[in-house]
Amino acid sequence: MGADQGAPFSAYIVTAKPGQGPPLHTHPYVEVAFTIEGTATITVGEEARAVQAGGIVVIPANTPIVS
After folding, report:
1. Which of 20, 39, 41, 59 allows an S-S link to 16, with CB 3.0 to 4.6 Å?
2. CATH-assigned architecture of domain 3-66
3. Model confidence at 3: pLDDT above 60
4. pLDDT-based confidence at 40, cuts 50/70/90?
5. Angstrom distance (rounded) from CA 34 to CA 44
6. CA nearest 30: which of 2, 67, 55, 54?
């Protein structure tokens, strides 16, 4: 996805210790979170999800997220 397809896209890797990570935020586009190793707790809106290695979470645009 990208400008040619009419949808913004960014990718990044976050290495975080338990309890650390980006604070509550939103994006004006869909966000896809992949857990590469370990387990990540990702809160999408009001729902906290434990995402194991290999797991994927799709976050709708403008939805509050804490990861």
Report:
1. 20
2. Sandwich (2.60)
3. no
4. very high
5. 14
6. 2
